[in-house]
């Protein structure tokens, strides 16, 4: 039985939009990234060094709780972002940029390893690849105040880490989608093409 479909990708790559559309089409449950009720996210973008470690720990255990709930679910679940991105993208970058200290980073990695060891990999990981100009365009469209502090170099650095991580991913099925030219809301054919790819990866069929 298919239980867990996960979406991965940089800030503004369209994960949440696609997760909602896949949930609607397939009748899957959906687990979104904790944004609106996140106690650290807005402060983080104003002072990364002060809040980075707490934010990453919060995300890690929030997603771990999601994975545990997915395993208990009676129906398939599509998840917006994964525990792997917490460690291999965001925490790694924050440590490299000096926003997480060496001691806190080592502590974080120990916690992450315990989480990964007890978290089954998704049945399908969907990676939305998008270049920086399109990430910026989508971030501007959704117009979240705290995201106005995001700079181009930060998005570029994250994209490089994503590409490095996804190039080594071998925990299960992987579907890479070139997301720059896709608009699932305004053009139904774009969504149909993605659904066909998902059907092929999960069930070996096209609609």
Sequence-ordered SSE layout with sheet pairings:
Blueprint lengths: L3 E6 L5 H12 L2 E3 L9 H6 L1 H25 L4 E4 L2 H14 L5 H16 L6 E6 L2 H11 L9 H15 L6 E6 L9 H16 L4
Parallel strand pairs: 1-3, 1-4, 2-3, 4-5
Report on the structure:
The relative contact order is 0.19. This protein is globular. The protein starts with a strand and ends with a helix. The chain is built from eight helices and five strands; from the N terminus they run E-H-E-H-H-E-H-H-E-H-H-E-H. Helix 3 (48-72) packs antiparallel against helix 4, helix 3 (48-72) runs parallel beside helix 5 (102-117) and helix 4 (83-96) packs across helix 7 (152-166). Strands 2-3-1-4-5 form a five-stranded parallel beta sheet. It has one domain: Rossmann fold (3-Layer(aba) Sandwich). The chain is 56% helix and 12% strand.
Pairing-aware structural class of the strands and helices?
Answer: alpha/beta
End-to-end Cα distance = 19 Å
Taken in chain order, the helices and strands follow as: EHEHHEHHEHHEH
What best-fitting shape do the alpha-carbon axes yield?
Answer: globular
CATH class category label? Alpha Beta
Query: Which stretches are poorly predicted, pLDDT < 50 over at least 5 residues?
Result: none
What is the number of helices?
A: 8
Based on CA atoms alone, the radius of gyration comes out at 17 Å
Strand content: 5-15%
| Number of spatially distinct domains | 1
Widest β-sheet, arrangement of strands: 2-3-1-4-5
CATH architecture: 3-Layer(aba) Sandwich
Described by its quaternary structure, the protein is single chain
Could you name the CATH homologous superfamily? P-loop containing nucleotide triphosphate hydrolases
What composes the largest sheet?
A: 5 strands, parallel
Q: Helix amount, in percent? A: 55-70%
Q: Kindly report the average pLDDT value.
A: 91
